[in-house]
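Working notes for the structural subgroup meeting. M.R. asked for a predicted model of this chain before we commit to crystallization trials. I am recording the input and output together here so anyone reviewing the notebook later can reproduce the run.

Input as submitted:
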Amino acid sequence: MLGKEQKIIIAGHGGQGIVLAGNLLARACIFQNKHVTGMVAYGAEMRGGTAHATIVISDEEIASPVVETPNAAIILNHPSLDRFENDLASGAVVVYNKSLMKRDPIRTDLKFIGVEATRIAEGLGSPRVANIVALGAFAAVTNCVSIDSLAQAIEELFSEKQKSMAQINNQALLRGAQL
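Returned structure, recorded in token form:
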């Protein structure tokens, strides 16, 4: 567990499913009767620019959705590591997509968990689910939300017409949780 109030940032570039991962995490928290808020920010570009979502999770009411010093992160690409590594609280848990990093993390006061999310997603047949691989690993490491609640959020989010998308996302979630 990350503490009483968990302040999480999910960061990557547009098209990596940052918003989807944030929405799934928030929905899963609601299933577990937690308080949750979230915000999304995009770069100027629609696809390929920077994007990040911040989520605050608590067992109590949340005073502000603003996250200035996250105590946990999911980082999906190298520019996001460069941008957010120094903003994280000392002791923060960081799950990062090792497949897309040009360097190792620098800070020694953070707990980094490197996951080959893109490689694993490609192995599942869909590089687009790297975000869900990382989300599964994050949930398993932090225990901030259960894998079952995340799976339920995936099933709820994807309609009957999108059953194959729900299946591949659930496979990615479980692969990430096994790491």
